[in-house]
Design goal:
205 residues, alpha/beta, three-stranded parallel β-sheet, two-stranded antiparallel ribbon, 10% strand, globular, G domain-containing protein, nucleotide-binding, GTP binding
């Protein structure tokens, strides 16, 4: 049983910064037709790709998503969300951490994000604690890092003991909706009996 994990520098300042950013959806409103929005998205995405290959040699680039339909799903999911949960494999979380996407969500969109370390039952507890401390230090105070496991009980049923901790982390996030003052996500959860200040009634995150 592993009780202690040796420290090892896993990030090098100035080297591990993302080479490329994420594509941003063009501005649109209720007057924008579906055809105009689709064309604007295609043009913006094409320009994003061309800019990447113009600035960086191909041999310096890792694999990244070239399908605009995938990015459309990301754009629409984020536009409809109040809080983002970034799921990282605890066996190698830095490999799965989308640093540019996290920056876009938090700095670009002003949305809170929770970091979820998945499959923590497959790594030593000392490693989980080390990753919690690392991401807490890297992302700063106020960012929740939640270890997550889905163990099976003796009866074969899948237990989910980590769900309450995840829900509590989400509830502590701040919801920012147009036309309403910021408030804790807990006030938007069904069954709380509360409404977000300035709102006209309950809602859901």
């Amino acid at each position: 049983r592993v009780r202690r994990v040796l420290e090892y520098p896993c990030a090098v300042p100035g080297v591990d910064a993302p080479l490329i950013d994420v594509p941003v959806r063009p501005a649109w409103d209720s007057r924008t037709s579906a055809e105009d929005l689709e064309k604007a998205e295609q043009d913006a995405f094409r320009g994003w790709l061309e800019g990447i290959y113009r600035r960086h040699p191909r041999e310096r680039l890792n694999h990244f998503e070239h399908n605009v339909e995938v990015w459309r799903q990301v754009w629409r999911a984020l536009e409809r969300s109040d809080v983002a949960v970034l799921v990282l494999d605890a066996r190698c979380p830095l490999f799965h951490f989308p640093r540019a996407l996290h920056g876009h969500i938090t700095a670009g969109m002003g949305m809170d994000a929770v970091v979820l370390l998945n499959k923590c039952d497959l790594v030593p507890p000392a490693a989980v604690a080390a990753w919690e401390a690392y991401f807490g230090q890297m992302l700063g105070d106020g960012v929740s890092v939640v270890p997550f496991t889905v163990p099976k009980s003796g009866s074969g049923r899948v237990e989910q003991p980590s769900v309450p901790a995840l829900l509590e982390a989400i509830k502590e996030c701040t919801v920012r909706r147009s036309g309403r003052p910021p408030c804790k996500a807990a006030e938007w959860f069904p069954g709380t009996g509360e409404a977000c200040p300035g709102g006209s009634g309950g809602g859901e995150v």
